[in-house]
Structure prediction request, 153 residues.
Amino acid sequence: MKIIIYPNKILSQVAERVEPEDDVRALIKSMILTMRRHKGGGLAAPQIGVSKRVVVWEDFKEGRCFINPVIVHSQGKVKSREGCLSVPNIQRDINRKRLIEVVGFNLAGESLIFNLTNREAIVVQHEMDHLDGITILDGKKRRRHESGYKKTR
Prediction:
């Protein structure tokens, strides 16, 4: 799949929740392949033109996914020098949380809870920003994904 490049409109829109009847298996497989082909550490569905709340990331050479992810706890601070597949040739310093607890769903609709630190936490926060229409160019734009956890898919 093709990576959507800024200033494409989809990159500034809030992605839609995945509903239980949505089949996102093919989407997630394509996202992992696209992420690897472009040598990214993570990818959000809007980056390939799909307005769905799905992120993938590379976890020790294993592709992982979150459907409808929400950060329910975070702590610590870290400044991260970040680039983005959708904003080529630009890097920015971004303030992130060092540790995050993320809840979401897997492909089977089962609830997932991950405690992520350092690089993985940074990657997942970056991808979750894309779900809220935020890119590395947006500076201190409010991050909405830390509130409103709901146990429904």
